[in-house]
Design brief:
Chain A has about 230 residues and is an all-alpha fold. Chain A has one domain (about 5-210): Fumarate Reductase Cytochrome B subunit (Up-down Bundle). Chain A is about 70% helix and about 0% strand. The relative contact order of chain A is 0.15. Chain B starts with a strand and ends in a 37-residue tail after the last helix. Among the domains of chain B are: about 10-250, Alpha-Beta Plaits; about 360-455, nitrate reductase domain like (nitrate reductase domain fold). Classes of the chains: A mainly alpha (about 230), B alpha+beta (about 500). At the A-B interface, helix 2, helix 5 and strand 1 of A face strand 8 of B.
């Protein structure tokens, strides 16, 4: 007999990821098409300039490295496992991952405190911001917890999480990889898809419009209404 | 030769009376929305003074504009190389404290206060938080030298003045100030455009107006730091930068921008200049002392057949060339050379020029009498109450010669007119002065005419609109006042 637990697991790890991804793609594209004006990082640096540094800088550098690590383990699991074959290299990877995880957590907490303490910042805080902070705290908190409590994550991620994620991508979800994992890891996975699903409705969309043409465009930008001036 | 046209401006500071009508006209049309309430796209500063935002000219603090390094010019704030370092936290961005916290008053209290021993008051309420605030600064906080030991004494343009000169500026009976109205300069080499990571800022090819694409701005805030004149502002509510748009919906319909139109002192002139876009980079790289001449050399003679031919080749309509030939700006800047760019050393090539102001007439104590003349006909320029060095820091890139030239010419014209109308100066002296000031009688008459008797049409020579090019012909900006800013069907909000 199939238990209720079975259905719940299927829903959490087999169905929810697709709901999240569909929402993510449809949501961000539709928002870009219909509400281009709303695509903004909604920076609050103008209202408070000092504490801003201690929140935003650790948060962003931390998350960039940590997310990058996830992507590398997802794309090159064999190479990561091979790297980890030597204990020293494993320790280096694990420790640096933890350091950047903690950096992210520190930045997130600093940003949240700043948002709550400064009256001006609170007035520009929306419901979506509050939900997002909660989701991110759970996500980063569980991530750091896993890094500390479930040792050698860089290895078992490559061995178990990567195949699971690829099974999602290839539209053939195999949830057996994640069923045996500890609760904290499951929470981290489910919450990750929650963040992805909620992504289009938050300021996170600024991630999608990072300034890429800037690095190779000419310094000055000229726009012509009548079409580029001939010879100009 | 790559000819482009630029709607350019001259502000005649000797005529500015500091009434702030321009600021109010602008505010009522463009910046009375939430998040823009602290912005003054047009503001009028008292000089000496620290300006708005406080000490905006201090580029050691704000890192605005370009700097010349190793043979090329680079943004002083954040450029491509430093973007990954500075995008999360912009290290040189002014915060609201450098401007002021906008406020209104709790007027309702005047009606609803309970009966008591004191008159009820309308307390100030922050327009950001909605809470009571203690107002500590505001726009024009140092208007007319208010609080000058704090404000005027810290004007960055006092750099290089002797202690004596600084003390003199503060001396009660020799106190002097003038007004410095400012809008966006719609530069030829705008630092704001170059700095925008999203490429949201752009210069319009047809008329050179610099705008921010509100749909592409992502609040990276680079433009706020990069503009050395601090004329891009951050809308703290919508998370978008905004700036002076030179009232382009008005200019496109043949009207002068609101601040120009409303100017009581009639100090503002607007017209087209043709310039050579291929030479901008070369000129921006000139040494400091050659910048003003280099900037002038970019501007092309609209009557030169070669220039007209090249303009045609670039698709510039004949009507725009005609307009350039009538341009009052060309006369002030090129023919008469009495209008100068502000802070050319920032190397953005501003297209708003200033005619430097005359100081009050200096008197000479002669035993028991006070005389207004000395043997030196131009003594009140050489010994002006406003030290030349101060004006040179503002309008001469630190070099006095160009400023002195402009002031001597103005002075000579005054005396020439006095010889004509008052008669207390002989025509012989007047002509001698004109001669010394590099000015002919015809030129003096023309300058007098355009300075004192100018009509609306003489001050604003706006190129005829080309309906097929105008963007907002079909929309009435007044209709959408306070609701949608410029050109949206949905009101601007913060986020989704």
């Amino acid at each position: 007999m199939v238990s209720a637990q079975h259905y719940f697991d299927q829903l959490m790890f087999g169905v929810a990821p697709y709901l999240a991804l569909i929402t993510f793609f449809l949501g961000t594209i539709q928002r870009y098409r219909a509400q281009a004006f709303s695509y903004s990082s909604l920076s609050s640096q103008f209202l408070e300039n000092k504490r801003h540094f201690w929140g935003m800088v650790p948060l962003h550098y931390g998350i960039l490295v940590v997310l990058g690590g996830h992507v590398v383990a997802f794309m090159f699991p064999r190479e990561v496992l091979a790297w980890n074959g030597h204990p020293i290299r494993l320790y280096i990877l694990e420790i640096s991952a933890l350091v950047f995880g903690l950096l992210t957590l520190l930045g997130l907490v600093m940003a949240l405190v700043r948002r709550l303490v400064y009256r001006k910042i609170r007035t520009v805080t929306s419901l979506a911001d509050i939900v997002l902070y909660a989701l991110l705290l759970v996500q980063v908190g569980s991530g750091v917890y896993v890094a500390v409590m479930c040792s050698w994550g860089s290895s078992w991620f490559a061995a178990s999480a990567t195949p699971y994620l690829w099974s999602i991508v290839t539209l053939d979800p195999d949830i057996s990889y994640v069923l045996a994992m500890p609760f904290a890891v499951k929470l981290h996975i489910v919450n990750a898809f929650l963040v992805i699903g909620f992504f289009p409705f938050t300021r996170l969309v600024h991630v999608l419009v990072i300034p890429n043409p800037y690095l190779w465009r000419k310094p000055q930008v000229v726009r012509w209404n009548r079409g580029p001036g001939s010879g100009a | 030769m790559n000819v482009r046209s630029q709607v350019s401006m001259v502000f005649h500071l000797d005529k500015c009376i500091g009434c702030h009508t321009c600021s109010i006209a602008c505010k009522n049309i463009w910046t009375d929305r939430k998040g823009t309430d602290y912005m003054w796209w047009n503001n009028v500063e008292t000089k000496p003074g620290t300006g708005f935002p406080t000490q905006w000219e201090d580029q050691d603090k704000y890192k605005g504009g370009w700097e010349k390094k190793n043979g090329s010019i680079n943004l002083k704030s954040t450029d491509k190389k430093r973007i990954a370092l500075n995008i999360f936290h912009n290290p040189h961005m002014p915060s609201m404290d450098d401007y002021y916290e906008p406020w209104t008053y709790d007027y309702q209290n005047l009606f609803t206060a309970k009966e008591g021993p004191d008159q009820p008051t309308a307390v100030p309420i922050s327009k950001v938080t909605g809470e009571q605030i203690n107002v500590e600064s505001g726009p024009n906080w140092d208007d007319d030298l208010g609080g000058s030991p704090i404000y005027a004494a810290n004007d960055p343009n006092l750099d290089g003045l002797s202690e004596d000169q600084k003390a003199q500026l503060q001396a009660i009976e020799r106190l002097v100030f003038f007004y410095f109205p400012r809008i966006c300069n719609h530069c030829l080499n705008p630092a704001c455009v170059a700095s925008c990571p999203s490429g949201a800022l752009y210069k319009r090819g047809e008329d050179g107006i610099v705008l921010i694409d509100q749909k592409k701005c992502r609040a990276w805030r680079s433009c706020v730091s990069a503009c050395p004149y601090k004329k891009t502002y951050f809308n703290w509510f919508t998370g978008k930068s905004e700036k002076c748009i030179l009232c382009f919906p008005r200019v496109e319909t043949g009207q002068a921008p609101a601040c120009f139109h409303s100017c009581v002192g009639r100090i503002r002139y607007l017209g087209v200049l043709l310039y050579d876009a291929d030479r901008i980079e070369e000129v921006c790289n000139l040494p400091d002392e050659e910048l003003i001449e280099g900037h002038r050399s970019l501007i092309l003679d609209p009557n030169d057949p070669e220039v007209i031919k090249a303009a045609k080749r670039n698709g510039i309509p004949d009507a725009v060339v005609d307009s350039a030939q009538q341009s009052p700006i060309y006369k002030f800047v090129i023919d008469w050379r009495i209008a100068l760019p502000p802070h050319i050393e920032y190397r953005t090539m501003p297209m708003l020029y200033y005619v430097p102001p005359m100081s009050p007439v200096m008197s000479v104590r002669n035993e028991d009498t006070i005389e207004h003349v000395s043997d030196n006909l131009f003594h009140d320029i050489d010994e002006a109450r406003i030290p030349m060095k101060f004006l040179a820091n503002l309008f001469g890139g630190g070099h006095e010669a160009k400023v002195v030239y402009a002031l001597r010419k103005q002075k000579a014209i005054r005396w020439y007119r006095r010889a004509l109308t008052v008669g207390d100066v002989t025509m012989e002296t007047a002509k001698q002065m004109l001669n010394e000031a590099d000015c002919t009688v015809d030129e003096a008459e023309a300058i007098y005419r355009l300075t004192s008797l100018c009509t609306f049409e003489e001050r604003f020579v706006i190129p005829p609109s080309h309906r097929e090019e105008a963007i907002e012909m079909s929309q009435d900006p007044h209709e959408r006042r306070q609701s949608t800013g410029f050109g949206f069907l949905a009101g601007p909000r913060r986020g989704l």
